[in-house]
């Protein structure tokens, strides 16, 4: 049986048994509370997945539109972190990643919404690894899914959760050992 004929057969079968199937489902809905609960839960999960996908698409569109407005980001800088040479990016790059400005990221750092940075250079600038940027992006997507509902504490909690889940190490702001983490940079 070819693909088109199988599809036609299924369509014909559905048309022939549509009323019988509808009546059976109506009886199940009316008489079986377990069936009703299962169907409601299934529909709730399906709607949640659709809502999450739409929110992700809207977030991606918002980030892309802001990227067009933002200035070009600097190329990564290479620093030694825990004995490994890793590329790190500026606050502007992190801002572009999440659809915000470098100023907004610096405000997050000052207020404590960002728990730290991947590394601080000797001049006090904060730099972020790719893993750190991706974790913050996921946290911002989750906040965007909530339609921006939530305050700074929610953002702080989401960022901390994502960093912990991704097992991303970072230096907390005001940590004296930050100087020990950066040994060389280009």
Descriptive overview:
It is a single chain. The protein has helices at about 5-30, 35-70, 90-100, 100-110, 130-145, 150-165, 180; strands spanning about 75-80, 85-90, 115, 120, 125, 170. By secondary structure, it is mainly alpha-helical. It folds into two domains: about 5-70; about 75-180, Multidrug-efflux Transporter Regulator, Chain: A, Domain 2, CATH 1.10.1660. Strands 1-2 form a two-stranded antiparallel sheet. The radius of gyration is 25 Å and the shape is elongated. About 20% of the residues are buried.
Which secondary structure elements does this structure contain, and how are they paired or packed?
Blueprint: H1 3-31, H2 33-69, E1 77-81, E2 84-88, H3 91-98, H4 102-111, E3 116-117, E4 119-120, E5 126-127, H5 130-145, H6 152-165, E6 171-172, H7 178-181
Antiparallel strand pairs: 1-2, 3-6, 4-5
Helix pairs in contact: 3-4, 5-6
CATH C-level name of the largest domain: Mainly Alpha
Mean of residue pLDDT values: 81
The spatial strand order of the largest sheet comes to 1-2
Secondary-structure arrangement, i.e. CATH architecture of the largest domain: Orthogonal Bundle
DSSP summary, beta strand count = 6
